[in-house]
Structures are given as structure tokens and as C-alpha cells.
Amino acid sequence: MGSQKTRQDIITIACDFNTSGLSAGKSGNLSVRREDGFLITPTGISYDQLIPDNIVHCDQNGRVISGDFIPSSEWPFHAAIYEAREEVNAVVHVHSPYATALACTRKPIPAFHYMIAVAGGNTIPCADYATFGSSDLSKNIVTALAGHTACLMANHGMVAVGDSLVSAYNLTHEVEALAKRYCISLQCGGPVFIDDIEMETIVEKFKIYGKQNKDN
Ligand SMILES: [Zn+2]
Q1: Average pLDDT of the chain?
Q2: Which of 42, 102, 104, 168 has the smallest number of CB atoms closer than 10 Å to its CB?
Q3: How far is the CA of 159 from the centre of ligand 1 (A)?
Q4: Residues 97-126: what's their mean pLDDT?
Q5: What is the C-alpha to C-alpha distance for residues 144 and 125, in angstroms, rounded to an integer?
Q6: Helix (H) or strand (E) run with residue 135 in it
Q7: Ligand 1 centroid, distance to 25 Cα (angstroms)
Q8: Cα(95) to centroid of ligand 1, in Å?
Q9: For residue 209, how many other CB atoms are within 10 A of its CB?
Q10: Residue positions annotated with a catalytic role
Q11: Cα–Cα distance, 1 to 52 (Å, whole number)
């Protein structure tokens, strides 16, 4: 069954949350879209103890279709993103140190570096604060993510999306690396920002950046 490989891919990345330092302990979660809902990490299980049958298959309302456990308590914003963004096939959420530190300032990451465009715009936005697992948080994330593929979540963490699990996870690492560089830059006296006109040019270039394989 194709979903067994996807379940294993989810576990591999969840374990990498811990080993890469992206998200400590049981924090963070990730999901992959299915025709009738999505596969998502369960709540309360250490990532290194997960087996494929533990990954929860639930519908858009969080009802469990298969899986031994209940889904991550943060399933509502995964469902909201899949509802709002038909091009998104995977969602990765972490409490990574630098992105989370910046998210606690409740401000976007500005255009301090051209790679900010990797998330689709001239900033990486920050979703307004709401209680974890709440419908308000889902709305705030969908709003902040509009036109983007990643955002910070105020006083919480970050979320990245993609057309595949690999693209969403690569973007998660990229955003955390950018957040780290921005923090260091602030400590060095603060960056000079790239202006909006130049960022527009860069965002356009990013629309074809890394796409050459699709044409071959
Ligand atoms: Zn979280």
C-alpha cells in the first residue's frame, strides 16, 4: 500500500526533527495530504518510537480513519491549510530555536537576505497569536501564509508547506537557517534591508529557481 511508504517518510522526518535540532522532544508535527484527508503524526508519542501504523489517517474534520492513536492536537491548522491551498500536499510544523525566538517578537522576518524569497514574498510573515489547536490559530496561519509557503507563528514556532514532503521539509530547514542568520545579523549592528523593487525581481526569479528538473 502506497501509504506505508508515506507513513515511513513521515517517521523519518519526525525523527530528524530531534536529531537535527529543529524541534526538541515531542514538539512539532507534520502531515501529508490524502484524497480523503491527511496522514499526520500522533500526539504524545516519542518520534523514535513511532512505527508506520501509529501515523494517523484522519479526515478534514480530524476524525480518525485509521491509525492506533489520536492525531496531533495541532491537526486543525493542517486541515485548514489543505482546505485553503489546493497546491499544498505537505505541512511541516516545528518549534525550531531561531524561528521561534523571532516568532516571539510577533514580527515578520524582513528582507535582510535575498533567500527570504524562498518562501514566496519579500518577508516571511508572522501569524497572529492564538491558542494552540484553536480555530483562531488556523485562521491566523492561513491568513499569514497567503501568497507564501512558510510563516512564523507568534509565540509558538513556524510552519512550512510544499507540493511534497521533501519540499516542505527542505523549506523548514531553510527558514530556520534564515532565522539564525537574521538573529546574528541583528547582533552585528542590524542588517541593511533589500528594497521592495529588488525583492520583487528576486521573487520573480525564484518562481523558476530550482525548477529545471521538471522540464527535463
Ligand atoms: Zn506547535
Answers
A1: 93
A2: 104
A3: 9
A4: 97
A5: 6
A6: helix 135-145
A7: 12
A8: 6
A9: 12
A10: 74
A11: 12
Rounded CA-CA distance 173/142 in Å is: 20
What tens digit of pLDDT does each residue of 160-209 get?
Answer: 999 999 999 999 999 999 999 999 999 999 999 999 999 999 999 988 87
DSSP three-state, residue 54? helix
Return the SS3 of 60.
coil
Could you tell me the domains of the chain?
Answer: 2-215 (3.40.225.10)
Q: How far is the CA of 132 from the centre of ligand 1 (A)?
A: 7
Cα–Cα distance, 103 to 95 (Å, whole number) = 10
Cα 209 from Cα 27, distance rounded (Å) = 32
Q: Which protein residues have a CB closer than 5 Å to ligand 1 (ion)?
A: 157
pLDDT at 213: 52
Task: Write 27-30 long-range contacts (CB < 8 A, 24+).
Answer: 27/94, 27/95, 27/157, 28/92, 28/93, 28/94, 28/95, 28/157, 29/72, 29/74, 29/75, 29/78, 29/93, 30/90, 30/91, 30/92, 30/93, 30/165, 30/168, 30/169
Sign of the C-alpha dihedral computed for residues 9, 33, 90 and 30 taken in this order: negative
Q: What is the pLDDT of residue 24?
A: 84
Count Cβ atoms below 10 Å from residue 191 Cβ, excluding itself: 15
In angstroms, what is the span from residue 94 Cα to ligand 1's centroid?
Answer: 6
Distance, CA of 61 to CA of 66 (rounded, Å): 14
**Phi, psi (deg, nearest 5) at residue 52:** -50, -40
Give residue for cell 524582513.
110
Instruction: Please report the pLDDT score of residue 207 as a whole number.
Output: 84
